[in-house]
Amino acid sequence: MADIKILHNPRCSKSRETLKLLEDKGIAPEVIEYLKTPLTAAELRELYQQLGFSDVKQMMRVKEAEYQQAGLNAADTTDDQRFAAMVEYPKLLERPVVINGDKARIGRPPESVLEIL
């Protein structure tokens, strides 16, 4: 199960809980600290597909100040603008995200990632 990855923020309690949940299951995921190594727009688009969401906002932290400052809540905001904002402000990506092959889940609650393992 070496192909399992977690987009992790060690300062986030949910992220730490999700990583511990994986480790408790005997899984040693590749840990990607996405704030230090931000995803590209192409990687974010792929992640959006893996998550299976119908709206890019579902993978974003819409309560962050940067979301409001970038005007991302405007009705005419495009997906391209939202992906670009997540590249510029990686903290806008909802966390943690566990990726297993072509599927991904946000660990809120942490147990939700179990359905793709």
Fraction of residues in β-strands: 5-15%
CATH first level of the largest domain: Alpha Beta
| Overall CATH architecture of the largest domain | 3-Layer(aba) Sandwich
Structural class of the helices, strands and pairings?
A: alpha+beta
Number of helices: 4
The proportion of residues forming helix, as a percent range, comes to 25-40%
> In CATH terms, what is the fold-level topology of the largest domain?
Glutaredoxin
What value does the average pLDDT take?
Answer: 96
Low-confidence stretches: none
> How far is the N terminus from the C terminus?
9 Å
Shape type: globular
- Could you give the order of strands across the largest sheet? 2-1-3-4
Count of discrete structural domains: 2
Number of strands: 4
Gyration radius (Cα, Å) is 14 Å
* Biggest sheet record: 4 strands, mixed
CATH superfamily of the largest domain: Glutaredoxin
H/E topology pattern: EHEHHHEE
Family: Belongs to the ArsC family.
Protein name: Arsenate reductase
Catalytic activity: [glutaredoxin]-dithiol + arsenate + glutathione + H(+) = glutathionyl-S-S-[glutaredoxin] + arsenite + H2O
GO molecular function: arsenate reductase (glutaredoxin) activity
What does this structure look like?
- A four-stranded mixed β-sheet has the order 2-1-3-4, sandwiched between helices.
- It is globular.
- The chain has four helices and four strands.
- The relative contact order is 0.24.
- 32% of the residues lie in helices and 15% in strands.
- It is an alpha+beta fold.
- The chain has two domains: 1-34 and 95-117, Glutaredoxin; 39-93, no CATH class.
- Helix 1 (13-24) links the parallel strand 1 (4-8) and strand 2.
